[in-house]
Specification:
The protein has two helices and six strands.
């Protein structure tokens, strides 16, 4: 099975030796996104909700670059530096995913790249072929 690197100029350039996303067959694997500005490449500071929206906006444009939408996302993994932010995260997350809720894991971690408060990765699947 072949893989294709996905790179959107509307999302931040990776800060390490990885792709924004990789498409393999019907699956799209979006690398963990931290609150980086797509325009400056700098960390988005300020309120937590602004950082969460930045991460989810970046995931959205990467998924769109592959010709998909957030409705195609089947699994999300969230890494939080402070689980006390869980309720605030959930409220914003719900705005993005609504009723198209993917499977999800959320874990508290001791530290994230660039000391950001969260990182989110996603797996999406095209609907070219439905399971029987």
């Amino acid at each position: 099975m072949r893989k294709r690197m996905i790179c959107s100029d509307k999302a931040p350039v990776p800060v390490g030796p990885y792709s924004q996303a990789v498409q393999s067959g019907e699956f799209l694997f979006v690398s963990g996104q931290i609150p980086l500005s797509a325009h400056s490449g700098e960390i988005v500071t300020g309120p937590f909700d602004r950082q969460v929206r930045t991460v989810l906006d970046n995931i959205t444009v990467i998924v769109q670059e592959a010709g998909l939408t957030l409705d195609n996302v089947v699994k999300v993994t969230i890494f939080l530096a402070d689980m006390d932010r869980f309720a605030e995260l959930n409220a914003i997350y719900d705005e993005y995913f609504g009723e198209a809720r993917p499977a999800r894991s959320c874990v508290e971690v001791s530290r994230l790249p660039k000391d950001v408060p969260l990182e989110i990765e996603a797996i999406a699947m095209s609907h070219r072929r439905e399971a029987h």
